[in-house]
Amino acid sequence: MSVHATSLDTLPQSDLAERMQYLVLHGVSWETYERLVDDFQESHAAHFAYDRGVLEIMVLSAEHERPNRTIALLVEEVALEMGIDVDNVGSHTFMREDLARGFEPDTCFYIQNADRVSGKARIDLAVDPPPDLVIEIDIAHPSLDKPPLYAAAGVPEVWRYADNGVTIYHAYHRQEASLVLPGLTSQLLSQFMQDSTAMKRTAWVRRVRDWARQLTA
User: Fold this and answer.
1) Residue 104 falls in which region: left (phi positive, over 0), alpha (psi -120 to 50) or beta
2) What is the pLDDT of residue 141?
3) Is the distance from CB of 50 to CB of 103 less than 8 angstroms?
4) Where is average pLDDT lowest: 31-35, 64-68, 113-117, 127-131?
5) From CA 135, how far away is CA 72, in angstroms rounded?
6) Contact partners, residue 111, CB within 8 Å, separation at least 6
7) Is residue 184 over pLDDT 80?
8) CA atoms of 54 and 65, how far apart (whole Å)
9) pLDDT per residue over 85-97, tens digit each?
């Protein structure tokens, strides 16, 4: 669904989640984008992405959140077994007014740069590094192309989940293997995600842990 920004103030926040899965608005000012982010900051009902006047509002669903949480759990379990410290900052809002861009990942991690943001309540991309890993769950196939947002902000690696598979991107280019968590590949991540829908959660977690232990043995 795509509408002009003049329709923005006619959309009741309380009805947004029931009326649409995602909405794309054109001609939206930076100030309006900031106001919407502030208005929804505590609700966690929607994610916002902004690219030079184009605003996407994505309403979350169980279909979206299950793979999101599964991939996040996989990252944390693998990192634990590898002895790698990670900082999961979830769907933290990242904004760069000088670039007129902003985004809220489905989940994101600081890994190599975890020490640089440890304990910070708010992360400012003007002075802080971008997340080392962004997880993007593409269920509804929204019309705003997010990889350029991540690339412009300097995010080094993105995992995109769609159609039961995971694709790895480095700086907007598709790659086979992860750099932030060596040993993980698109094929392996996709297999883990497929297994997660067929196995009990505890058994699946053990499988992920066993794989990571064998890798580091």
Assistant:
1) beta
2) 62
3) yes
4) 64-68
5) 8
6) 79, 84, 85, 86, 87, 132, 133, 180, 181
7) yes
8) 24
9) 999 999 999 999 9
Residue 128 DSSP SS3: coil
- Tallying the residues shown for the chain, one arrives at 217
Distance in angstroms (rounded) separating the CA atoms of residues 177 and 168: 7
Tokens 């669904």, located at residue: 1
Distance CA 106, CA 89 (A): 10
What is the C-alpha separation between 119 and 111, in angstroms, rounded?
A: 14
| Residue extents of the structural domains in the chain | 61-216
- Compute the distance between CA of residue 60 and CA of residue 137 in angstroms, rounded to an integer: 10
DSSP assignment letter at 217: -
Q: Could you count the other beta carbons within 10 Å of the beta carbon of residue 95?
A: 22
Rounded to 5 degrees, what are φ and ψ at 59? -90, 130
Distance between CA atoms of 118 and 89, rounded to whole angstroms? 10
> Pick from 110, 103, 165, 154: which is nearest to 132 by CA?
110
Q: Tell me the whole-structure pTM to 2 decimals.
A: 0.86
CA distance 105 to 48: 9
Answer yes or no: is pLDDT of 78 > 60.
Answer: yes
| H-helix or E-strand spanning residue 58 | strand 54-59
Is residue 133 exposed (0-12), middle (13-18) or buried (19+ Cβ within 10 Å)? buried
Check whether domain 61-216 has CATH 3.90.1570.10, yes or no = yes
